[in-house]
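Hi C.,

You asked whether I'd gotten around to modeling the 144-residue construct. I have! Everything is below, sequence then structure, no commentary in between.
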Amino acid sequence: MFLTYSGCRISEALMLEEEHLSLEDGMVTLKTLKRRRVVYRRVPVPGDIIRMLLDMGVCENGRFWDCNRVTAWRWVRNAMTQAGVRGPMGTCKGLRHAFGIRAASRNVPPNLIQRWMGHASQTTTAIYLDAVGPEERRFAERMW
């Protein structure tokens, strides 16, 4: 659920600590190592997701999840398979893509989507906003 509502990368979720959550303003601070230096960004998430994490508590390492990327990736893939989501969309990156598409379909300005996804370039964000199939059809229907 956290990946779905935050649009974060799996490695960013695994680094999440209680101090990164702000229930007051509904923001989560994510730390990414994707760039050459450590970069922090704040992403709005529903208060229910923040409460769920706080209720879950942290592990001995101070983080919400105590596993490696591969294990977390398998958890997500298994959950997506059980939900009937298969193929490329049934992955962590599929959830990230869905976050970008959902934001675009709700008329979130591209610069905010770029910031929330942690992209240095609008070109990278555009990759996640590439709507095809049913997503493309829904955009077309909104236009008509």
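If it helps when you're writing up: The two ends are 33 Å apart (CA to CA).

Thanks,
B.
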